[in-house]
Amino acid sequence: MYYKKISQNIYDCNTCPTRCDGKSKGLYLFEKDLDFSEHFEQEIVNHLNKKNNLFAKKTSENSYPDIEVHKKDVDDVWFYIEIKVQKRTFMSVEKILPYSNLKPSETVALNLSDLLRYFSINEKTQKPVFIFWGVLNRPCIIKQNEYLFFYQNIKELKKIYERFGDKRRFRRKSGKGDVVNGVHKGVTVNYHFSLNELKKFSFK
Fold first, then answer.
1. Does 183 fall in a domain?
2. Structural domain boundaries enclosing 104
3. By CB count within 10 A, which of 53, 123, 127, 166 is most buried?
4. d(Cα 92, Cα 74) in Å, to the nearest integer?
5. How far apart are CA 45 and CA 203, in angstroms?
6. CA 120/CA 175 separation, integer angstroms
7. How far, in Å, CA of 98 to CA of 96, rounded?
8. Is residue 121 part of a domain?
9. Distance, CA of 50 to CA of 19 (rounded, Å)
10. Looking at the domain assignment, is residue 18 inside a domain?
11. At 55, which CATH number?
């Protein structure tokens, strides 16, 4: 069951009483964002490990998704999870990507190179890959100081990618903090999805 909009007006940024800031922050603190994502990564691992039949841990393979999940007492990986945290939304998405069929309030992003790599990992390993987005700071759907997780199977995301192609691709300018020790690590080319194309994750 896909995530369902509560009300069209709630998702209309032009009528929102707490409209998000549409200005680019220009400051991309790669290492700080990485630490933030790892906090939520551990939260998902802890939750899965409370399940009697699962064992989750940080992935051992380089360049693979963040988390590998096993059935208890089974060596082979059952599926992978990649964690992304979205603090801000893409307020100009309708202007910059007019054919994307996206509204700012529902838009989430993923590094395009990561997305393509996860397509390949899924095909190579034949193991399911799930992308999890932790969404914060969107008063139209989330109460203050709260967050929600949404997720989707990489196979479903690939169908969306094949349908929209470059209509959902955007390259931003590099900013301060993208370069760490002389290496450009910040994400500059993103691919975008809608919360309506994802499923809501429950911690129950």
1. yes
2. 25-200
3. 127
4. 46
5. 11
6. 29
7. 6
8. yes
9. 38
10. no
11. 3.40.1350.10
